[in-house]
Amino acid sequence: MIISDVVVGLQHGDEGKGKVTYDLLKNNPYHYSIRYNGGPNAGHTIYIDSNTQIVLHQIPIGILLEKPSIIGTGCVIDINKLEEEIIYLENKGFKHVRENLLISHNAHIIQSVHIQIDKAKNNVGTTGCGIGPCYVDKYDRKGVRVLDKLELFKQLHLTVISVPEYFSLLNNYHFQILFEGAQGFSIDIDWGDYPFCTSSSCVSGAVSNCGIPASTIRNVYGCCKLYDTYVGSKIFQPDNDPYLEQLGIIGKESGATTGRKRQCNWLNLVDLKKSIIVNGCTHIIFNKCDIFQQIKMNKLLNSSDESLSYTYEPKHLKSFEFKDFELFKKYIIGQLSNISLTNTFISFQFSSSPYKI
Ligand code: IMP
Ligand code: MG
To answer: How many angstroms is it from 106 CA to the middle of ligand 2?
Structure first.
């Protein structure tokens, strides 16, 4: 029997999924960690402790906790960068990286030509990792898959598996899997602001592309920030808003993969609501509350032309609970429970389905 939980991004990526995934894996009895979409375009930053920062691009976060970790079928793999990432982790002292890393046999491989095409024609401001052209070849049925390059994976001492067969062979056991989404709903290939999006499916249901049925999903942890950020070629940050400029600086909003400056905007409730619904979130986690608190102006966007401003100078997140929780409740969601607060994030659990809005 398999139970799956999924961590998804509800905005444009960079919502703190890495941190949430790491915390969930650390504090719950998950047996497997699986990435189900995207490739080296992702940059998941994790602080193991206050001094140790780890940035992962392709390898699932479970590897940091010595859990078997799978790069799933919906992903695209850059083998050279994968090797670099393995060596980076080994040099940082992480053990059994190669033993614990399993690769899905039918994931697709990014080739150098994909990177060249991506860099040559980059109208949407991609990460230049060859993601789009690789998915183009996949859907054009002329891609190269892991099973075509088994020798390369063998040289790296990595195990290639067929996910459904792997779990079927172990079917007397009870497994809990944590799926780690990359990117986010607002840059999803179907639900994002096309064409300013990535090329993979970033929603929770896409875990079934890995060969694990969607019916195994128990919890969907939707991650977002109390403000929004976006990296790419469209204009996202309004001009002349010093508060947004400040958010970018205090929040250190620059890309973990490309180092580009992220554009900032206020949290868009309309988009967030849609994202919560389509992903079927059971939980929602607002990250970077500590950053948001340092800004003297706070706004929420309720539609493209209406914004709700509220000003406060909370001394502690408790004041956030009382003032802003009501705003979120009013505009987004019905029933919430299990509110928990820390210095940096707030998490809620939906006690009734967010579909009933
Ligand atoms: P691509 O995924 O490299 O094709 O880039 C397409 C768009 O998605 C660009 O606007 C990228 O900046 C954005 N993007 C891709 N991956 C991430 C991510 O992990 N975080 C934030 N933005 C991303
Ligand atoms: Mg990131």
So the answer is: 25
Distance between CA atoms of residues 82 and 220, nearest Å: 28
Q: How many CA atoms lie within 13 A of 221 on its CB side?
A: 26
Query: Residue 118 burial (CB < 10 Å; 0-12/13-18/19+)?
Result: buried
E-strand stretches of the chain: 2-9, 32-35, 44-49, 52-56, 69-71, 76-77, 101-104, 108-109, 159-161, 175-180, 217-225, 227-230, 263-268, 283-287, 298-303, 306-310, 336-341, 346-350
Tell me, yes or no, if the pTM score tops 0.85. Answer: yes
Distance CA 80, CA 219 (A): 34
Question: Which of these, 262, 179, 277, 177, lies nearest to 227 by C-alpha position?
Answer: 262
pLDDT tens for each residue of 8-47: 999 999 999 999 999 999 999 999 999 999 999 999 999 9
Ligand 1 contacts CB of residue 184 (under 6 A): no
Could you tell me the sign of the dihedral formed by the alpha carbons of 46, 50, 53, 54, in that order? negative
DSSP assignment letter at 41:
T
Q: Among the atoms of ligand 1, which is closest to the Cα of residue 44?
A: 19
